[in-house]
Specification:
Blueprint (H helix, E strand, L loop, with lengths): L4 H13 L5 H25 L6 H10 L8 H22 L8 E5 L11 E4 L8 E5 L12 H8 L4 H9 L6 H4 L4 H17 L6 H26 L4 H11 L4 H13 L6 H20 L5 H9 L6 H24 L1
Parallel strand pairs: 1-3
Antiparallel strand pairs: 2-3
Helix pairs in contact: 2-9, 4-5, 5-8, 5-9, 8-12, 9-10, 10-11, 12-14
Length: about 325
């Protein structure tokens, strides 16, 4: 252990979650989420009538050819189909939509072998579209059952929607328009995957398992990041936990673990951000009852750009108070 390592890691936990949480609290929350998601995964396995263990099912998903695209064109067309369907759902869930369009493009061939599965690349200029990049290299590692979750996270209602709206807040200073707080941005991306469930995506059980796979990956991060940096876990312990609970390939597991070792705390931001947004939504739904409007809630979450979770909570409290005042005024009138 490094001198002052525990204090440094606690500082990183607070920096990346933007909340006053301890490593132990994050670890426990991670274990709870892993258990919850695992039970949902087991239910999907049962529903599809698969005979075999959890590990057997993961092996089936990794090796059965129909789960993988045969050509780059097939993968890009499927991503475009999902994105088009997601575009159509937006007016039902958002009052304000970005003016900036987005396109879908393959990750450039020269960087694709070392590049992630998919990523959103925003434009630097106001008059240019953003791009959802889809990696068409090594098609046998690009499962179609994960594509709905990936597309909702990277394109809309995920990163493209959130980053473009942020950039279009021209009354904010530039550092606010172009800043990116990981707990907010990645929390929103993961919440967007979940929102797809509500909007009628993941009708195919394997696609729903893909969503749960992505969610489990982010939940397991809470356990292994804190395990490594606060609980004395070895690299192998972290690898074993990740491999035993997620559908990631062993190559991806070791790459992920080495990332967490070298970048303490950053991987906590995704799940903590998502859980915070979900908690604030539940708070608004409970407070406003039948007067809760999902479009107004989402607009309130996104209207101030990328902000710390503690500030977001204050903003949601103010949103609830404003909505209550409007309701009271209407009933008095």
């Amino acid at each position: 252990a490094l001198p002052d390592g525990a204090a440094f890691y606690q500082n990183r936990v607070e920096y990346y979650t933007t909340l006053p949480m301890t490593a132990q609290q994050v670890h426990q929350l991670g274990l709870q989420e892993v258990a919850r998601i695992r039970s949902e995964m087991e239910q999907v396995i049962k529903d599809v009538g698969f005979k075999g263990s959890f590990a057997d099912f993961l092996m089936f998903l990794r090796t059965d050819p129909p789960f993988y695209p045969k050509t780059a064109d097939e993968l890009l067309k499927e991503a475009a189909f999902i994105a088009k369907k997601a575009d159509a759902m937006l007016p039902k869930y958002f009052g304000k939509l970005p003016r900036t369009p987005y396109g879908i493009a393959p990750v450039p061939a020269e960087i694709a072998p070392k590049y992630t599965t998919g990523r959103y690349s925003g434009s630097n200029r106001d008059d240019e579209p953003g791009y959802y990049w889809v990696n068409t290299y090594a098609l046998d590692k690009r499962p179609l059952y994960e594509l709905e979750a990936l597309t909702l996270h990277e394109a809309v209602p995920g990163h493209h929607l959130q980053i473009s709206l942020n950039k279009e807040l021209t009354d904010l200073p530039n550092f606010r328009r172009y800043s990116y707080i990981s707990a907010f941005g990645e929390g929103w991306g993961l919440y967007s995957e979940y929102l797809g469930l509500e909007a009628g995506f993941y009708q195919d059980p394997y696609s729903n398992f893909g969503r749960l796979t992505y969610e489990m990956w982010r939940a397991a991060r809470l356990v292994v990041d804190t395990g490594i940096h606060a609980k004395g876990w070895s690299r192998q312990q972290a690898i074993d936990f990740m491999a035993g609970n997620t559908a990631l390939s062993m190559h991806n597991v070791t790459t992920e673990i080495d990332r967490y070792i070298s970048w303490p705390g950053q991987a906590l931001s995704y799940k903590i951000g998502e859980l915070t947004i979900k908690r604030l939504r539940a708070k608004a739904e409970t407070s406003l009852g039948k007067n809760f409007d999902i479009r107004k809630f989402h607009d309130a979450i996104l209207e101030n750009g990328s902000i710390p979770m503690s500030v977001l909570e204050q903003m949601v409290d103010e949103f609830i108070a404003r909505q209550k005042a409007i309701i009271e005024e209407a009933s008095a009138g």
